[in-house]
Amino acid sequence: MHRRDFLKAAVAVAALPADAAAQPAQRHVFSMNRNWLYGGKAAPGATLPDFNDSHFERVTIPHSNVVLPWHSFDDQAYQFVSIYRRHFRLPQELQGHRVFVDFAGVMTAATVTINGKRLGEYRGGYTPFSFEITANANWTGDNVLAVEVDSTERPDIPPFGGNIDYLTFGGIYREVALRLVPNIFIENVFAKPVDVLSADRKVDVRIGLNGSAGGSAPLTLAVELRDGDRVLKSATQQIGAGGSDYQDISLTGIGAVELWDLDHPKLYQVVTRLSGAQGALDEYAVRIGFREARFTPEGFRLNGKHIKLRGLNRHQTFPYVGGAMPARVQKRDALVLKKDLKCNLVRTSHYPQSPHFLDACDEIGLLVFEEIPGWQHIGENAWQDLAVRNVGEMIRRDWNHPSIILWGVRINESHDNHEFYTRTNDLAHRLDDSRQTGGVRYLYGSELLEDVFTMNDFGFPLMPPNHPLYLNTEFVGHTYSTKRVDNVERIAEHGLRHARVHNQIGSMDQYAGGIGWCAFDYNTHGNFGSGDRICYHGVTDIFRISKPAAGFYKSQCDPSDEVVLEPGFDWASGDRSGAGGPGHVPIWSNCERLKIYIDSKLKSEVRPNTKEYGNLPHPPFLADLSGLPLNPWGDLKIEGYIGDRVAITKTYSGRGVDAQLHADPDDMELDGDGIDATRLVLRVTDEHGGPRQFASGAVALSIDGPGEIVGENPFALTGGVGAVWIKSKQGAGTITVAARHALLGSKSVSIRVRQAAPERI
């Protein structure tokens, strides 16, 4: 690997501590996510230190440059150049350090100025960047950091230049930190487990250094492999004092370790220290997992075990604020995918996503296929250079995540470009030879330069694998857009289409797996989707609330994980083409048999349809609920059996009455930093808690205490559900949210807010 490949843009921004306490003596990283001033559209002179910003709005980061409705808005509303300013004072006791400002993500281009000195423009909204401000820092008074954020769809920046089927939104939407380091410091560490399944396993550690210590005295690098407070292995190496460089150290003779896998995602820590004659200079810690992940002609193998990949694509955007959601909300998406939808793989379509999301994938055992920004369009040479840069920045940011098993180095669904994709693949392999590459295409005969042929195949039956290493990366999606309020036939067919594809994928090992399009409905441009700036392609809605098709994915888990019983339809007598019941409909379950009762009378007993879906871990139950009498009409009750035991029961009302209002937060406690947030799900159900997909009306929300509502208020229910987010204010106390429906009364919920430590800078 070339030195410049390793070091270029190598910054650490995944973890941004709130204060410098307990950090090594020579490295100090300060969170800069509070006390920003936002001025809306940029004005002349707004980057100058003496500009009057007294009328600016005080905001926290992550921040969206405009708050929008969840649908039917004009995407031009966020496409403007905005201005952010942050005043701060440097700790005088740290004078002599080099000073950097680290941005985890700004959408889409950022021009950064410190104390009136323009540092440069960074182009790209999905990867981190840093500017050194040492030469222009004021150690005795106020410093003014100004950021002009260009959120227009500039054709010189990937993914723009053509049409794209998603929105990018705008603002400083990921965290910011101020980093003070010595003259020579550790810039990045790649800790690569090698031969993890053998007795000779080791960790090859590549350490990037920046700067010079001065003088001729040698420096010492020390590396430790840790399991909590326990040091498992260590090694040291002396290096010269001058010049930026990278150094390689191997930790050998490690002995037995716990492997990182889907059920037990064990994480270790690699700590690297740099010291000189006067003592410690710097310390840098990363998390790793010991695992071997390979695509083979017989499918995907994790630690030597064959795993059929079953996943969904994720867009990172949320209602109202796009990508500007804090760590808790980003991590929640990983839990939805793993715990609610029982996926073992997610694709970060179509760009590198939040480090917090990837951290959660590491922690819960969710595999990741991560790719560079883009959608079909390939620009001219300068555009391609940026895309190649994106490959390097993505890999350097994320190479220590054990959850990532595949680098996506091709613009999604683009045509062949031999020279361009030779460059992206070569860079990926130079930086990280431990992972394979893929490149998502929709052209079956396109040139394969990557290791794995990753294919969007929206037809059925699927095309057979045409390369030894083959992964299906999109299906269903736009070919069968489904809303919660669609009729029973469409809702049932939505889930069945996902099931048919996964059943075919299960028919042969060479299909490594399938990643359905997609997990969540998402905002898009007006020339895509359903005419309201939404693509209703998800198995959940844009609020991450499951549609019936989500039951298919959930039902594929082992009953020891969770016993699942989810009807793939809504219970009504005539909501189809013809009357007399829902018709022939799927029930998604991992039980062995089901008993179906209508109006307390046994209608039928059904078993999994292994004839048509025998390649699935848990085939659907196909129930004949057609030709039902209209009188008597009653409740639907389904009992799921494992052996002779009733393992689960679900009941759905036949009354056709909206009976209950629910207001359920994901979390009962938040940090009082003015940043933390949690989702509040609004739902109307029948008397048994079953969905009421046509329930409507406005839910009026009121809030008391140290919090605010992010979302529409009142909220007009759609499909009987919806959500807002509750964001903390700075301080401690109790947030009380009351939700009131004109017909169903009120519900209230309380959320405790913990006092958060103040930012020092």
Q: How would you sum up this structure, described in words?
A:
With 761 residues, this protein is mainly beta. It has eight helices and 46 strands. Strands 21-22-23-24-25-26-27-28 form an eight-stranded parallel β-barrel, surrounded by four helices. It has a six-stranded antiparallel β-sheet with strand order 3-2-4-9-6-7, with no helix packed on it. Strand 11 and strand 12 form a beta hairpin. The longest helix has 18 residues. The chain is globular, with a radius of gyration of 27 Å.
For the sheet with most strands, the description reads: 8 strands, parallel, barrel
| Global Rg | 27 Å
SS class: mainly beta
Give the low-confidence spans.
9-24
Distance between the termini: 38 Å
Total strand segments: 46
Q: Helicity, in percent? A: 10-25%
Strand order of the largest sheet: 21-22-23-24-25-26-27-28
User: From the structure provided, what is the oligomeric state, counting identical versus distinct chains?
Assistant: single chain
Strand-residue proportion:
35-45%
How many alpha or pi helices?
8
General form: globular
Give the mean pLDDT: 94
Quick overview:
The chain is mainly beta and 761 residues long.
Topology readout:
Blueprint: H1 3-7, E1 28-31, E2 36-41, E3 57-59, E4 81-88, E5 98-103, E6 109-114, E7 117-123, E8 129-132, E9 143-150, E10 176-181, E11 184-194, E12 202-211, E13 219-227, E14 230-239, E15 246-251, E16 268-276, E17 279-288, E18 293-296, E19 299-302, E20 305-307, E21 309-313, H2 327-340, E22 345-348, H3 355-364, E23 367-371, H4 381-398, E24 404-408, H5 418-431, E25 436-441, E26 452-456, E27 470-474, H6 488-505, E28 511-516, E29 522-523, E30 534-535, H7 550-555, E31 565-567, E32 583-589, E33 593-598, E34 601-606, H8 610-613, E35 621-625, E36 636-642, E37 645-652, E38 660-665, E39 669-672, E40 677-685, E41 698-704, E42 707-710, E43 715-716, E44 721-728, E45 733-741, E46 745-755
Parallel strand pairs: 21-22, 21-28, 22-23, 23-24, 24-25, 25-26, 26-27, 27-28, 39-46
Antiparallel strand pairs: 1-10, 2-3, 2-4, 4-9, 5-8, 5-10, 6-7, 6-9, 11-12, 12-15, 13-14, 13-16, 16-17, 18-19, 19-20, 29-30, 31-32, 32-35, 33-34, 33-36, 36-37, 38-40, 40-44, 41-43, 41-45, 42-44, 45-46
